[in-house]
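Q: My collaborator sent me two sequences in one message, no labels, and asked for predicted structures for both. Can we handle them in order? The first one she listed is below.
A: Yes, handling them in the order given. First sequence, followed by its structure tokens:
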Amino acid sequence: MSQKKEQWGSRMGFIMASIGMAIGTGNIWRFPRVAAANGGGPFIIAWTIALFVWAIPLLMGEMVIGRKTGLGTIGAFRDFVGKKYTWMGTWIAVVCLGIMFYYSVVMGWTVKYFTLAVSGAFTSGMDITETEAIWNVFTTTPSQTILFHFISMGIAGFIIYKGVTNGIEKASKIMVPTLFVLLLAAVARALTLPGAAQGLEYLFSPRLYMLTSPTIWLEAFTQAAWSTGAGWGFIITYSVYTQRKEDVAGNCMIMGFGDNLGALITGMTVLPAIYALSPSPEFAADALSSGNTGLTFIYLAQLFTTMPAGQLLAAVFFLAMAISALSSLLPMIEVGVRNIMDMGYDRSKATKIVVVAGFLLGIPSAYSLNFLDNQDFVWGVGLLVSGLFVAFALMKYGVEKARNNEINTEWADFKVGKWWSVCIKLFPVFFTVVTGWWFMQAISWYPDNWWHPFEVFSAGSILFQFAILIIIALLFNNRLADKVGEGRDITAAK
């Protein structure tokens, strides 16, 4: 069942695709609202720490596993750790696809807002109440949200169908530079608005006392994983297509820093715009602390109505948002496609299976914002579990062995010290402290219904869905391990 693997056409193609993977709506849609809801400055501190101790080390680890095995997440864990741990690779794949189901809906929002901008819906003189009304009408009209979810899956599916070099790589080389130019134009305008300085102060004021909140740390680690792609299985999957001489550390550093740069640029656009366009600082503070899912859409739509050629700029910006969403949706689909291809299917059939399933299973998130928020909450934390599994795989294989033999190769431009090994070994501690601390707080906050599996943000909802996935992954462990074909010839830690 082993198939000839596709390859990236160049290192630049791989890096562009990887940065595109990271700089998605996780930066433009998710980062501003999560940072705002968690106090701005203290969140930035915790998120930056998470980048260095969790996200970048994890990206390197995933790249080692993907390059070593030449398989998607399911086969990679079978060969890298041992057959009985195949279920961990299944977990990573399903968590990634769980996010894909609602992420396509979010991309649909960006496509819809692009069409609104092109049609002239954002006219000069509109206020926040009007742009909020547009958002509320759209997100409560299932025929619209489902239609644009369908369009998004169709666009992404077509590119994946074209393959790695002719699809993902070609698209990324156009999308990523375009995205950065458009983001820089948006931040330049936002920072010149009267009152924008208050938004910057909110974003960067340290407020160190808030770092005692477990929620801020959980959200920071979740955002670092969500945004950079750490724990998604993206880099395991994309690394399958890399050439032999790749600088693992250098590539992953570029991914991590590129992602954080994109997030900060977006934060410096959205938060100043909110302060500048709100009727009062109190109104802005309430809006920021609300965690409103539509924060970026509501305020940026209004921002463009204050600009010369605002309709054109709005169209360009929401096109950039759509591009960023697409660049992250592609690897989510590819994680599923690669795993199915490892089981003997060709790319065409595998793509059709994942795209159709993605559309159907994304409909609940398109229908209900509460359902989407729950899935974002549950599988965001699921990424931390995925990271824990990758760390376990590396420890089973030998962390120092991976660092010396797979990362610090003779052709590597960037040599990694023992800090990487220490971070990987501390993953269980990071995970236990952050999630355990938060869990205890969650019980105290919701003493009567913390266990409820159908509450949007309850700990019980996380535990319920995690339990279902683990049971299914364990039940199908051996069947999936036997179904996946042979990877590269490695000595696995059985």
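Q: And the one she listed second?
A: Here it is, processed independently of the first:
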Amino acid sequence: MIHPLFTHEIGSLAKPNWRVKAMRNRPLTDQDLDDAQEWGKFLDLETEELLEILQKRQNFTPEEKQKIVWYSSLMATRMLEKAGLDVVYDGEQHRVEMYEYPIRRIEGFQFLGHVRSFDNKYYRKAAVQAAPRLKELYHLHEYQVIQSFATKPVKIPMTGAYTLVDWSFDEFYLRGVEIGTREGRRHRREARARFLHDLATQVIHPNLKALYDAGARFLQIDEPAATTKPDEIDLFFQSLEDSVGDLKGKVFFSVHICFSDYRLLFPAIQTVEGIIREFHFEYANRDTRELGVDDRKRRGYEILKELVKYDFIAGVGVLDVHTDWIEPPELVRDRVLYAVEQMGTPERVFVAPDCGLRTRTWKVAYEKLRNMVEGVELAKQALGLS
């Protein structure tokens, strides 16, 4: 399955308006139905059943809502396959978002209210009030659905233990811990380590294990909070090791960290060599749009000079997910060629967008991904790989 310059999408895609409105009990418009029909035609899918359901416009039954989600999952997966990616996913069509969705399915948490994440996006923040335990496996059904119709290998991303801990209030592990003293700081760190260990071993690992048992061989752990607290980098890596557990060497594990100070990960990153195969960072957002393979033109890829010292595949972001600008294949080619030069071999380079494309329309996301695949093919030709 794995080969040089392997291509994949990092995780999230936008949800179609007809899917969003149906879940929120808002009436659909003619444009929503036209959109479903046009994407079905573009993807060579039979959508008569979907269109018949959507004709109701509102007041969908639970069974109809489930079928609507199924079709959005099918279409998103087919879109990535049509773009030419090597491994596919459905862009989180089954999920609310990356924090609230898992927390709902974990015992020991209580939601307290909404907080702003970025732009006009909000999520419900929770507090841990008891030792976390898994209520239900929360990605297994999703994998089984996608696997049932995917024609390419399926990747499942999962929010990691450190991010779930960092984005939650702690009203359990910190009980009785004093504030403002040296002993208090030590006890707070010990409490944090216990919180991470419990969540990693009792929640994340069982989910990963269930996916492995169901046949998943490409799993991604999303950790946007990884470098939030520089003095906890070691705890972050320990949580990865605890999450993987006895799955080490059985699954291709990728870790995605976006929009961070990646320098903070070194040299502690060496502790997960042999456990994590790929570290995917964001690069294009920091890069120029000029063609070329020199350091000045490819200044967004500077951290590769550090990553090459360790035994990992570099997942390189070649698409800026914060703009509708469609990167030309030639620019993707040069970014890939530069990454290969830094890593020493194409076997140590995988290619994807910087992050999930959920803030972009499907049309823009598809065009970006299609050009990404074309750019990778140009790089392969330049390297004599095709």
